[in-house]
Amino acid sequence: MGQYTEEINKRRTFAIISHPDAGKTTLTEKLLLFGGAIHVAGAVKSNKIKRTATSDWMEIEKQRGISVATSVMAFDYADHKINILDTPGHQDFAEDTFRTLTAVDSVIIVIDAAKGVETQTRKLMEVCRMRKTPVIIFINKMDREGKDSFDLLDELEEELQIRVRPLSWPIDMGPRFRGVYNLYEEKLNLYTPSKQYVTENIEFKNINSPELENYIDPAQASKLRADIELIEGVYSQFDVEEYLKGNIAPVFFGSALNNFGVKELLDCFINIAPSPRSVQAVERTVMADEEKFSGFIFKIHANMDPNHRSCIAFVKVCSGRFERNMNYKHVRFNKWMRFSSPTAFMAQKKEVVDEAYAGDIVGLPDTGNFKIGDTLTEGEDLHFKGLPSFSPEMFKYIENADPMKSKQLNKGIEQLMDEGVAQLFVNQFNNRKIIGTVGQLQFEVIQYRLLHEYGAQCTWEPLNLYKACWIECDDSEVFDNFKKRKAQYMAIDREGRDVYMADSSYVLMMAQHDFPKIQFHFTSEF
Ligand code: G4P
């Protein structure tokens, strides 16, 4: 047992993910209320990017500014330290969310009972599956009319490609919603509309006992018995190990708005969710309870105020203990750095911290030293793996609009790419720079920031591309042949890797068919 094992075992670092409007903000807020981190409902709302503002990215950036404070929400609950990492709901910032998922040890997925699995959820789950992140599913809004619960379970298995296991089961829904039978705790949790909590929490081991009818009406009681029998018959016993391996997702039902089922979810979560685990570096596996500190930057948040061009680099502590004013090695620069005002995030407040342990997130004020994926250590050369870049979906040529400022433009582009705002490729045929993003908004953000922070002007030229894929091939003859054939569509990324820019899904399919020896990758880490 290491020196810090106790601290580390207490930690639960996770993210809540959902399609917008499923109830992520509401659930987060209720969790914070349990932790005593906030005291009034509504406190977290400011963090949400409002739908009315989707076309106005300045407004979105302002709201994102607010969200720095809620980037990490830490609180104590039942002897545990919980770190919730916030993820932007807006789909144009999906890349941010993907990266945040590299810094969590588990995930809670919120599903709207009426809508089932939606696009964003599907995409985010892909990342969880890739990383084998353990997930718990919370089916929300049971106080409203929704889909049949068994149908929902089938939909989850099919759409999210994960086995599920209900740990609570709803008694009716909508206006007739009476609560849930909590299979995990063997309790009957009763619901009364308009009451902001579980109204009754009754120990109830045997639902076949006629006493059930004392609490719920006979029709609901017999339906519940039949449902539970079916569940026990169809789904195997819940196995925590399988959950931790990312093979099975326990499912809870409730209503975040009514605070129903939230505490039960949290209680199960702290029991079964993993504490910080080992992290894979290129050189070796780094265990969370090692004595020496190591961590990586998974997110950089720029200040949009042009008078203070500063960023906060978010470090996930992977091992050991981080201390204020200690010297740590910035591995990429082979340079020692000292941080006098690292911050932690306690719910709404950002405060200077003296120490942090594996699982914690520390914010480091930065003026352009860091890029996503950078490692800090006590001296060892470590490079953490698993921070993938996904193939962007939108592409434009970027052109300099002010020849006197080309230096500024290049510096601005480099730094914005370091922050992970978008990805840069250079076309090998015409040597032009291509910016790839996941959403239209990023182009506007880049143009604005280049002008206001770097005094550089750019214009965009539309580029009709379908996907960028990183390609590899052991057979150099085949590889050269491919590159020749696709000369106009060959580019390199910032690391000098070969990237094929396919202009349509058909062309890509044909390329894969015609060149079976070439490997096409849709994320940049392989
Ligand atoms: P998000 O962060 O996932 O985007 O969702 P958010 O929590 O903001 O919830 C989206 C809407 O769904 C909100 O309503 C919220 O009040 C509602 N909601 C959340 N949980 C429940 C639930 O258990 N039952 C019901 N009936 N509604 C729920 P809104 O009208 O969009 O916002 P607001 O004006 O109420 O704040």
How would you briefly describe this protein structure?
The radius of gyration is 25 Å and the shape is globular. By secondary structure, it is α+β, with helices and mostly antiparallel strands.
Account of the protein in words:
The protein has 526 residues and is an alpha+beta fold. It folds into 3 domains: 14-66 and 105-272, 3-Layer(aba) Sandwich (Rossmann fold); 279-377, Rossmann fold (3-Layer(aba) Sandwich), CATH 3.40.50; 394-521, 2-Layer Sandwich (Alpha-Beta Plaits). The radius of gyration is 25 Å and the shape is globular. It binds guanosine-5',3'-tetraphosphate (G4P). The site of guanosine-5',3'-tetraphosphate has 18 residues, from helix 2. Guanosine-5',3'-tetraphosphate is lined by residues 18, 20-26, 48, 89, 140-141, 143-144, 255-258.
Strand content: 25-35%
What percentage of residues falls in helices of 4 or more residues?
A: 25-40%
The helix/strand class is alpha+beta
Biggest sheet details: 8 strands, antiparallel
CATH superfamily of the largest domain: P-loop containing nucleotide triphosphate hydrolases
Strand order of the largest sheet: 27-24-26-25-29-30-28-31
Indicate the low-confidence ranges by residue numbers.
46-55
Radius of gyration over C-alpha positions, nearest whole angstrom: 25 Å
- Count of discrete structural domains: 3
Number of helices: 13
CATH class descriptor of the largest domain: Alpha Beta
